[in-house]
Amino acid sequence: MTAAGHVPVLLREVLSHLAPRPGGTYVDATINGGGHAGAVLAASAPDGRVIGFDRDPQILAALQARSAAEIACGRLTLVNASFATLADVLAAHGVGPLDGVLFDLGLSSHHLDSSGRGFSFAHDEPLDMRFDPTDEACESAADVLAERDADALAEIFRTYGEERFASRIARTIVARRRTAPITTTHALLAAIEQSLPAGARWRARRDAARIFQALRIAANDELDAVAAALPQAVAALAPGGRLVAISFHSLEDRLVKHFLRAEVAAGRLRLIQRKPILPSDEEVAANPRAASAKLRSAERR
Predict the structure, then answer these.
(1) pLDDT tens, residue by residue, 95-143
(2) What torsion do the CA atoms of 124, 126, 127, 130 make, to the nearest 10 degrees?
(3) What's the predicted TM-score (pTM) here?
(4) Which of 210, 247, 260, 288 could form an SS bridge with 252, CB 3.0 to 4.6 Å?
(5) Which CATH number fits domain 11-110+222-300: 3.40.50.150, 3.40.980.10, 3.40.630.30, 3.40.50.12280?
């Protein structure tokens, strides 16, 4: 059921820490191309079950077509929703308690390579960046750039992108949009390049990557969604059930780390391993996008 070209990160480690078993019930909170979920279904055969969440209707439509057999027999349920609604969705489907929950918080290769929504500056595309482009309640990245003042934009770039030239870039964006709105990836890239000191422009794409990350997080309220979902996941776990989270940047990893520590201190979880699991050199060589992945896991007491 895995999408062609989709490479699930830290797959062996996910299976080791999630420990799927026959008859178990699992949530893949970011099912994406189905790589992790397919492996969990195989490991929990013949009667294990996966409830897969994704905000992107395009991803779910493609996965539904590839996974007809698993859906038809009731082993796979696909849900077009944010994992921030985890508890409500599980209640609506009469699911629980869970034997495991997986969060793979990385950006999908589909979003970067073929969504056409401006997640990457590799191609000139509209600056949408919404995981669900049909969600009118969610601002697009272009809307964020058009409606925030320089101080608010700088705060987004500084907080979510950890960008040292946040204020300079924000002021340039505000100045440029007086002439024409910044609605495409290459228009934003040009504004970022113009903002940087002459001696730093050779590395403009590194700064741009941080700005694009910040806009994506802001447009989708990503960190708030993670903060809302983690306690719901713990509450849904059966004793001995496991929570596994893969993060790809420091903001997500810090949030997960601090949450797990607090839950351990409260006596609800025990850490499976104290330090995060990192991808091997071999995995990074085969899939460079795995390079920044960190896996953390815990078990419900």
Answers:
(1) 989 999 999 997 778 888 878 899 999 999 999 999 999 888 899 999 9
(2) -120
(3) 0.93
(4) 247
(5) 3.40.50.150
